[in-house]
Amino acid sequence: MIGRRPTRIGAFAGLAALTMTLALPAAAVQRPLWELGLGVGSLRLPHYRGSDQSSAWLLPVPYIAYRGEIFKADRDGARAVLLDSQRFDVDVSASASTPTRSRDNHAREGMPDLKPTIELGPNVNWTLGRGRGAVAGIAEWKLDLRLPLRAALSIESQPRVVGWIATPNVNLDLRTAGGWNVGLLAGPVIGDRKLHGYFYDVAPAHATAGRPAYRARGGYAGATALAGLSRRDGPRWIGFFVKVDSLRGAAFEDSPLVRQRSQWSAGLAMSWVLTGSSRSVDVDE
């Protein structure tokens, strides 16, 4: 571990986010129905969006891949494909946030801890275009419009819905002639009042001279942009991402808990596939 005793749930949530953001352009290849492996990953993540403090982790990363007709677990995340066509598909979107202990965060000192959350909901993908070799060095490309809508649930002994979030984005996937996969996405973040309140409300009982009481509003929550790079080389897979968040113009921008309006996070992971199914299936890689 690097940092102040972060929980494994939060670290694995971040590493899952790394694999879920490295989508690949379509090129049919044969892969085992399932694969298992193990690797290692490193992450740098802010305590929460708008925090001026961050934590870093170095942890083992399990590699699990399943490529069924409906249920899948691969570089695009664990999901159920509900509808699939040439240009349009619907699946289940997932994301997560890490926990924050208030004693480790200056802005939240004396406030209740932030529990980790998991986000689940439908995701509509519309393929705007795709092609091969349009630019030197690029073997394939694919441009998607993605429309995920997720409910956020707290991870605790009695889980509860803490709000809703939508992250519409434009996603460009590239495969280079050298075998590297590049993913680029950008879009706004929109949340309801309940979700924003979970992260940015300050109850009167927790107000101080430097932290006035505050009630967040729902609506626009800033924007995000992400770049990912990955490569599968035999049994080895390596992936890297860097993400930039902007909270300028967000409905809760004036919360005393927002200490930084622009921030970045990054992650690096490497996994080795140790075993796999003898049965192979066609997949889009």
Automatic annotation (TrEMBL):
Belongs to the MipA/OmpV family. Residues 101-112 have a biased composition (Basic and acidic residues). It comes from the Bacteria. Residues 1-28 form the signal peptide. Keywords: Cell outer membrane, Membrane, Signal. It holds the Pfam family MipA. This is MipA/OmpV family protein. It is found in: Cell outer membrane. The lineage of its organism: Bacteria, Pseudomonadati, Pseudomonadota, Betaproteobacteria, Burkholderiales.
